[in-house]
């Protein structure tokens, strides 16, 4: 079914390209006109009948939208729609047909039948708009549902306010002294590098054996897909890479939900992470810390649950004493604790910055960015 969607995309794209080359004055074909061509295409290629008809219509919709994005783009950054390769490892298809609950723990999907799931209780009072079946490089299948639900319940306003300073060793440092460490994914990064080497070596040896059979003109030459050793290494590498991506995201979801539940007003720095990553010594650590994702999760969760998020100017938050307001100048990153030369107060660098962020949010009334419900 994944290949059927790819096949329809390539056929429709080739037809539209050829049509434009033959006569440039012909009108643009929209998604509804492309859908009329699906019936003769199914007669010519009967294997397309195995797919959900709505998934092929979604392909036409995506293709039409790609052309519209290309024509409407004035910056020149969006290119023309391209043909899809069968070598792409992450495959999926999207459909609009009705999915219904077939039992206590079963969903009935068009053309696939009943699928066991534990989420049927959540889907009782929602309207399923679309579904997507996804095949990951790890070999696992996922079902993603786009549903229409009522507005989520607002969390109770606690009246608490907090300033948050983000860092590398500790992801979030709160103005009340709490610190939440960054997620350490070094173990799976090491395993992913090992499996990457094994995969490259095994695939290279398989290619050599395929060429050897071709040069010797063997009666039944072996193909690259007939060697399973490199394919096993590819799946093991993909599993490690999936853990590297999924575990930090899960950690961020749990942390941001906890913060939104606890505090009514959250103040953060308006950091430009893209500029900070120009420092090549800290670029990887900043990317692994996922500061941007942390802020995005806080933004939409505060909007969902009726909390307030304030982003303030990060200028001098690490230099100013949070007690007396004296600016003692720049400090290297090695200095984690310092004493104010004016009031002699001893500060933790990160906690002091978080307190200053909260003070700025209170003084300004609102920061550079205000996200409210």
UniProtKB/TrEMBL annotation:
Keyword Zinc: yes
Probable transposase IS891/IS1136/IS1341 domain segment(s): 145-279
NCBIfam families from the UniProt entry: guided_TnpB, IS200/IS605 family accessory protein TnpB-like domain
Record-given protein name: Transposase
Domain Cas12f1-like TNB: from-to ranges: 291-357
Pfam annotation, one family: Cas12f1-like_TNB
Molecular function terms, GO-annotated: DNA binding; metal ion binding
Protein family membership: In the N-terminal section; belongs to the transposase 2 family.
Annotated organism of origin: Lactobacillus gallinarum
Biological process according to GO: DNA recombination; transposition
PANTHER family in alphabetical order: RNA-GUIDED DNA ENDONUCLEASE INSQ-RELATED (PTHR30405:SF25), TRANSPOSASE (PTHR30405)
Key words, A-Z: DNA recombination, DNA-binding, Metal-binding, Transposition, Zinc
Domain Transposase putative helix-turn-helix: 1-24
Domain of life: Bacteria
């Amino acid at each position: 079914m994944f290949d059927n969607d790819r096949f329809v995309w390539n056929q429709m794209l080739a037809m539209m390209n050829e049509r434009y080359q033959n006569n440039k004055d012909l009108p643009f074909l929209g998604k509804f006109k492309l859908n009329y061509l699906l019936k003769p295409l199914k007669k010519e290629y009967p294997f397309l009948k195995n797919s959900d008809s709505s998934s092929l219509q979604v392909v036409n919709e995506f293709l039409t939208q790609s052309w519209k994005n290309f024509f409407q783009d004035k910056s020149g950054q969006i290119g023309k729609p391209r043909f899809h390769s069968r070598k792409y490892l992450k495959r999926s298809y999207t459909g609009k047909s009705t999915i219904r609950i077939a039992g206590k723990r079963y969903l009935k999907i068009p053309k696939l039948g009943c699928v066991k799931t534990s989420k049927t209780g959540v889907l009782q009072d929602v309207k399923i708009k679309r579904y997507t079946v996804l095949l990951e490089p790890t070999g696992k299948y996922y079902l993603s549902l786009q549903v229409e639900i009522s507005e989520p319940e607002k969390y109770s306003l606690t009246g608490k306010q907090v300033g948050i300073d983000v860092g590398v060793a500790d992801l979030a440092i709160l103005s009340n002294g709490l610190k939440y460490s960054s997620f350490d994914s070094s173990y799976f990064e090491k395993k992913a590098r090992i499996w990457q080497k094994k995969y490259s070596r095994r695939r290279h040896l398989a290619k050599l054996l395929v060429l050897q059979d071709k040069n010797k003109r063997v009666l039944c030459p072996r193909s690259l897909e007939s060697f399973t050793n490199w394919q096993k290494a590819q799946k093991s590498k993909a599993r490690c890479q999936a853990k590297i991506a999924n575990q930090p995201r899960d950690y961020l979801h749990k942390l941001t939900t906890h913060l939104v539940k606890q505090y009514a007003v959250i103040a953060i720095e308006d950091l430009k992470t893209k500029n900070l990553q120009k420092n090549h010594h800290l670029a990887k650590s900043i990317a692994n810390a996922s500061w941007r994702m942390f802020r995005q999760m806080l933004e939409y969760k505060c909007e969902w649950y009726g909390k307030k998020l304030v982003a303030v100017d990060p200028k001098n938050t690490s230099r100013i004493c949070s007690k007396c307001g004296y600016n003692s100048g720049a400090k290297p990153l090695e200095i984690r604790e310092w004493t104010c030369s004016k009031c002699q107060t001893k500060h933790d660098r990160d906690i002091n910055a978080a307190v200053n962020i909260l003070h700025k949010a209170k003084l300004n009334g609102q920061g550079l960015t205000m996200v409210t419900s």
